[in-house]
Amino acid sequence: MPEDESSRSSHSNPGKSLVNGIKTNPASNSPKGSLSVPMGPPVYVDLAYIPNHCSGKNTDPEFFKRVRASYYVVSGNDAANGEPSRAVLDALLEGKSQWGENLQVTLIPTHDTEVTREWYQQTHEKQQELNIMVLASSSTVVMQDESFPACKIEF
């Protein structure tokens, strides 16, 4: 009786497994895995939303080195979950400092939080040096029974 494909491949490739469809050698895997995003040129965009409500779980200086935006939107209003994260705001400064060009960047927080206020005050000189402007909301939108701060962005 012929051996099926899956049993043959497991016998012919001992110690190898598939991760996302790619053969890997478990002994050579790093703790985070061996799959990494290859380096490439930076991506320039007009507007970027900082992932995961500006949580430190998914965003680091590498994000800001590679995703170069004129405007970054920072949401997050949950201090208990570290949103917005001071580390992510600091990562913006670190990443932007390595751009090699002094393009204007505007940071748009969607909420007025203690974290963003403290970061703004403590790093104001560095922000100016790196040509980063933090846009405070100067408008309020009123819809039925709700009102909330708003910013107008023109491209």
Automatic annotation (TrEMBL):
The lineage of its organism: Eukaryota, Metazoa, Chordata, Craniata, Vertebrata. Residues 22-33 have a biased composition (Polar residues). GO terms for cellular component: cytosol; dendrite; microtubule; microtubule associated complex; neuronal cell body; synapse. Gene3D superfamilies: Ribonuclease Z/Hydroxyacylglutathione hydrolase-like. It comes from the Eukaryota. One of its GO terms (molecular function) is microtubule binding. GO terms for biological process: axonogenesis; dendrite development; microtubule cytoskeleton organization; regulation of microtubule depolymerization. This is MAP1A protein. Residues 1-37 are annotated as: Disordered.
